[in-house]
Design brief:
25% of the residues lie in helices and 38% in strands. It is built from seven helices and eleven strands. An eleven-stranded antiparallel beta sheet has the order 6-5-4-3-2-1-11-10-9-8-7, sandwiched between helices. Helix 4 packs antiparallel against helix 5. The two termini are 31 Å apart. The N terminus is likely disordered.
């Protein structure tokens, strides 16, 4: 499940500093302007670094690769290191291939909570706050220099898997996407200026939080 969830956290720059300033000036009363400012025109791709914090791992797992957005419902994620894997979602179906192994496919209809999760991200990528609010409660906070958009699932099935999705940004660009899972695991995608940030072998959550918020790491 975590592979598909982190795939859905596709990345894009915010269109303008003025749009961000207008959105966060409302201090969370209305996140629509911020969502509209984050609209991404397909096709688009971006490099990323991902840090996975999991209770099943003795240290965080760090991945590097590229994300692609080809239009509504079409997402892809390539992992280049420390292993090779490609995950794609298109036409209601997900496929995963690691290295030279056979491709594994499954229908999103088999996982209604994942389908709702991806539907929400399609709305986010499309800048459609009204559609997004059907599946998530939206809260924007911060200011034009440092801001956060938090999405809390309304659907109980999704909420049992994911407690929140958070987008951290600074100025006119998104910096990090957090997927907070119900079991306490957290996946963080670092993008844009942070995509090639040199990370230690054992990054801590406070250190990643500081990077995402544009602050000095503790």
């Amino acid at each position: 499940m975590s592979t598909s969830l982190s795939l859905a956290s596709a990345i894009w720059p915010v269109r303008s500093h003025a749009a961000v300033e207008t959105a966060v000036a409302k201090a969370g009363a209305d996140a629509k302007t911020l969502v509209a400012a984050m609209k991404r025109t397909a096709p688009a791709r971006t490099a990323y670094s991902e840090v996975r914090f999991s209770g099943l791992l003795d240290r965080p797992l760090i991945l590097h690769g590229e994300l692609e957005y080809s239009g509504p419902g079409k997402l892809a994620k390539s992992v280049d290191a420390p292993y090779r894997e490609r995950t794609t979602i298109e036409n209601g179906e997900a496929s995963v291939q690691r290295g030279d192994r056979p491709v594994r496919k499954f229908s999103l209809s088999q996982a209604p909570e994942l389908e709702g999760f991806l539907r929400g991200f399609a709305a986010l990528l499309g800048g459609d706050a009204d559609a997004l609010q059907r599946d998530f409660e939206l809260v924007a906070s911060g200011n034009a220099d440092v801001w956060r958009l938090k999405l809390t699932p309304r659907d109980e099935r999704l909420a049992k898997r994911v407690t929140a999705i958070e987008v951290d940004g600074a100025g006119n660009a998104a910096r990090c996407f957090y997927t907070r899972e119900a079991d306490g695991d957290v996946n963080v995608l670092l993008v844009e200026a942070l995509a090639n940030e040199k990370l230690p072998n054992r990054p801590t959550m406070p250190m990643i939080d500081a990077l995402c918020r544009g602050a000095k790491a503790p």
